[in-house]
Amino acid sequence: MTLSFIVAIGEDNAMGVHNKLPWHLPKDLKFFKSTTLGKPVLMGRKTLDSLGKPLPNRLNIVLSRQADLAVPEGVLVFNNIDEAINHLSDQEEVFIIGGGKIFEETMHVADRMYITRVHGQFPEADTFFPHIDHSQWKLEWEEAHPVDEKHAYAFTFQRYERIAL
Q1: What is the CATH number of domain 2-162?
Q2: Boundaries of each DHFR domain copy (predicted)?
Q3: Is this model's pTM higher than 0.85 or not?
């Protein structure tokens, strides 16, 4: 199984403000959808809350320590990351989609990162992606997108693979 992060982050590692994205980038949303479609997505409870509903055509898994967490039908809940990953061990690729604590707790086991680097600073942000030790990662691909009528920020899609030691 390949354990992949997929995330959009600002140049200051900002990911969110008040449980929402600090930007609206339609091409990034399409990239997220096309990359994760048909594959399991693993997230924290706050990320599920921010989505408002489970992502369609994907197995949605939520990590929460809350014993009686009410989730929509079809969403699986695990109280620790190891159980969730073990449950998904037969999958080809699993996507961790947030939030910040989940990324931090799984950084040491992730195999791949799909990062949309949003070229801007977001001082109002209250959720951040953890520090990346670039000595452990190799940039395999990137694709730049300029500001346009639908995108207030320039951004770059990037894919990193963990360097085997």
Answers
A1: 3.40.430.10
A2: 2-162
A3: yes
